[in-house]
Amino acid sequence: MTLAERYQAVRQRTEQICSHLQTEDYVVQPVVDVSPPKWHIGHTTWFFETFILKPYFMGYQEYNPEYNYVFNSYYETVGARVIRTDRGNLSRPTVLEVYQYREYVDEAIYKFLCQEPSPEVAELFELGLNHEEQHQELLYYDIKYILGHNPLFPAYNKEYSSPKIDAEPGFVSINEGIYEIGFEGEGFCFDNELNRHKVYLNGYEISKAPVTNAEYLEFIQSGGYQDFRHWHAEGWEWVKTNQVIAPLYWHQIDGEWFVYTFRGLEPLHLHDTVQHVSYYEAYAYASWKGMRLPTEFEWEAAATQFNWGKSWEWTESAYLPYPGFSKAPGAIGEYNGKFMVSQKVLRGASEATPPGHGRITYRNFFHPNLRWLFSGIRLAR
User: Fold this and answer.
1) Which residues have CB under 8 Å from 226's CB, separation 6+?
2) Range 171-376: architecture per CATH
3) Residue 40, burial from CB neighbour count under 10 angstroms (0-12, 13-18, 19+)
4) Which among 164, 212, 167 has a CA at the least distance from the CA of 307?
5) Would you call 334 exposed, middle or buried from its count of C-beta atoms within 10 A (0-12, 13-18, 19+)?
6) Which residues does 267 contact at the CB level (< 8 Å), separation at least 6?
7) Domain 3-148 classified CATH 1.20.120?
8) Contacts of 335 (CB under 8 A, 6+ apart)
C-alpha cells in the first residue's frame, strides 16, 4: 500500500467513525478528559498541516492561521493553544468549516505525495498516520462518554457489534529468568517502546482470561466498594469522594444491573469482559481475589500465550522510560516523553483500537483514576 493509499484509508476511517453522529454530538465536552469529536477532526488535520505541509511542501498556503491556536493539543514548541477545558466552547469554527479544512489539507497532502518524500519525512508521515489512529480510539472513548452521559442513553449505532475473545480458564506459568522487552524489527513503533532491553522476572502465573462482568459483580456484591482493606489510600479517597459503586456505564435499575453500550442501555452481559474500570478498581479487585496485577514486563513476556485485544489491561507498572530512551528534538519530542510521570501503563489493545495498530510492545498510559478508556483487568500471582 502506498503512502497516499494508507493516508486515504486512515482519514476515511476517522470520518466513518463520526458518520453515526448528529451535528450536536460533535461539540459536546462533558468533562476535561473528553474532547468534542469536532476537535479531533480538526486536530488530526492540523497535525499533517503543521508537521508535513508547512515545513516540507513548498508554496503551501496555510488554511487559517487561527487554527493553530484552536487545534494544537499540547505542543509547547508550536505555540499557544486553547486550554483543554475550553474545547467545548468552540462553537466556531463550525462542524462544516472543520470538514472543509480537512478537505483542503487532504487535497494538499495528495499533491505533496505525488513525489516520493525523503526517508525523514516519510517517517514523520507514518507517525502522523499512527497519531490519527490513536485519535480514532479516543473518538470512540469520547463518543461513548458523550452519549452515555446523555439522560436518554441514545445509541451510537444500533448495529454496533462488540468483539468477543476466546479465552480459556486457568493460568499460564512463566519460569523465572531473563526476558527481552521492547520493540525490535521492521515497521513502526512509538519511541516509548524503545530501546529493547533485558529484564529479570521471578516465576509467576498470569490468567489466560481477563476478568468478566460476572466475576466483577461478585466483588461488588461482596461489599468490595465499602471495604477499605482492598484499596490504596488514594483509591479509597477516590471511591468516597466520587461515590463510586460500580464500573463506569453500569446502572442499577429496580435491583437489576444495566450497562450503557454503543447500542444503548442494555442488561449487563455477565460473560463479557469487564470494561471501564480505573487502576484503583483493578488493584482493589485483584487484592480482593488474593492476587495482583501483572507488571508490564510480565504481561509482555507471556502475551503470546493468551488472547488479548478486547480491553486495555492495567498493569502494576509506572509509566517510565526504558533504558537509553531519548526524546526527539523539537515538537515531536513532546509526543510521549513529557508524560512519563504519575501514570500507569496499560498493555494490549481494545475493541476501539484500529486494525493493525496494536502490538505486544505497545505501551498505553493513563492516570490511575481514569476509566472512560476501554480498560480491563488480567490477574497475576
Assistant:
1) none
2) Alpha-Beta Complex (3.90)
3) buried
4) 167
5) middle
6) 256, 257, 258, 259
7) yes
8) 127, 131, 190, 191, 328
Q: Where in the chain is the domain with CATH 3.90.1580.10?
A: 171-376
C-alpha span between 68 and 66 (Å, rounded): 5
Cell output for 308: 488479548
pLDDT digit of tens for each residue in the chain (381 aa)? 999 999 999 999 999 999 999 999 999 999 999 999 999 999 999 999 999 999 999 999 999 999 999 998 877 767 788 888 889 898 999 999 999 999 999 999 999 999 999 999 999 999 999 999 999 999 999 999 999 999 999 999 999 999 888 888 999 999 999 999 999 999 999 999 999 999 999 999 999 999 999 999 999 999 999 999 999 999 999 999 999 999 999 999 999 999 999 999 999 999 999 999 999 999 999 999 999 999 999 999 999 999 999 999 999 999 999 999 988 887 777 778 889 999 999 999 999 999 999 999 999 999 999 999 999 999 999
Cα angle 84, 89, 92 (rounded to 5 degrees) comes to 115
| End-to-end Cα distance, the chain | 44
pTM: 0.96
Three-state secondary-structure class, residue 258: strand
